[in-house]
From TrEMBL:
It comes from Dendrobium chrysotoxum (Orchid). Gene3D superfamilies: Cyclin-like (1.10.472.10). This is Cyclin-like domain-containing protein. GO terms for biological process: cell division; regulation of transcription by RNA polymerase II. Belongs to the cyclin family. Cyclin C subfamily. Residues 46-136 form the Cyclin-like domain. One of its GO terms (molecular function) is cyclin-dependent protein serine/threonine kinase regulator activity.
Length: 153
């Protein structure tokens, strides 16, 4: 990993702010507004955080999972990738990337325990299949610079 953010490949991958909060054309056709899109992202970010609290991962893993979630939806539509499945998969992928691995079956267990709504439920195979789709959506780029290390120094 590069020692300097401004010379890193992560800096080269940055997306302008006006391109981040854009509703995908497929979602626009279905009537999703920008405000609803932002609310969905906030809700699913909270879902990542709650799930992460149950599986007891570090803050860095949570931040990476949220970053992956936001990156996915700058490229893909909510119609293509169901956010209720993308959320635990982002946490699963982030735990691997941050070398703090959480088993998929543990995520499935806690989702069933904390979500009474059947729509949020998923199986291990669903998470593993979505992992490959997420890797493609992220262009296999999993590097995330977090402010935690510089803040501690």
């Amino acid at each position: 990993m590069a020692a300097n953010f401004w010379t890193s490949s992560h800096y080269k991958q940055l997306v302008e702010q006006d391109k981040i909060d854009v509703v995908h054309p497929i979602d626009k056709e279905r009537g999703l507004t920008l405000e609803e899109f932002k609310l969905i992202k906030i809700h699913m970010t909270n879902h990542i955080w709650r799930l992460a609290q149950h599986v007891k991962v570090r803050q860095r893993v949570i931040a990476t999972a949220v970053t992956y979630f936001r990156r996915v939806y700058t490229r893909k539509s909510l119609t293509e990738y169901d956010p209720r499945l993308v959320t635990p998969t982002c946490l699963y992928l982030a735990s691997k990337a941050e070398e703090s691995t959480v088993q998929a079956r543990l995520l499935v267990f806690y989702i069933k325990k904390m979500c009474t709504d059947e729509k949020y439920r998923c199986e291990i195979k669903d998470i593993l299949e979505m992992e490959m789709k997420l890797l493609e959506a992220l262009d296999y780029y999993l590097v995330v610079f977090h402010p935690y290390r510089p803040l501690l120094q």
